[in-house]
Amino acid sequence: MRNIPSVAERKEVLKKLLRNVIIHEEEILDALHKDFKKPRFEGVISETAYIISDLKNTIKSLDSWAKPKRVLPSLLNFPSSDYIYSEPYGKVLIIGPWNYPFQLAFSPLIAAIAAGNSVTLKPSELTPYTSALISKIVRETFDVKQALCVTGDHTIAQDLLQKRWDYIFFTGSVPVGKIVAKAAAENLTPVTLELGGKNPCIIDETANLPLAAKRIVWGKFFNGGQTCIAPDYLLVHYRVKKKLIKHLIEEIENALGENPKESEDLARIVNLKNWRRQISLIENQNIIYGGEHDEETLYLAPTLVDEPFLESTLMQEEIFGPILPIRSYEHRDEIAKTVNKYEKPLSLYIFSENKTFIKEVLEKYSFGGGCVNDTLIHFANKRLPFGGVGHSGIGAYHGKLGFDTFSHKKAVVKRPNRIDIPLRYAPYKGKLKMIKRILNWI
Ligand code: NAD
Question: 200-383 has which fold?
Answer without folding.
Answer: Aldehyde Dehydrogenase; Chain A, domain 2 (3.40.309)
